[in-house]
Amino acid sequence: VAEAMACGVPCVVTDVGYSGITVGGLGEVVPRVDPAALAAATLRLLARVETGEVAPPALRAHVVQSLSLE
Question: What pTM does this model have?
């Protein structure tokens, strides 16, 4: 997930492990066994991308600032 975000790809993730923490407020988090929630979250995230609320530079910056090894 972090690698995808570092490349500017917005992510919809399941609430497993640290995925929710990794995407922060820039992605969507859904329960792990809920296909309807996954579909709805994907549509929400696409809408956020279209409006510019979630942009590739912000995704990369989140990873660099919050998740780097330094």
Answer: 0.87
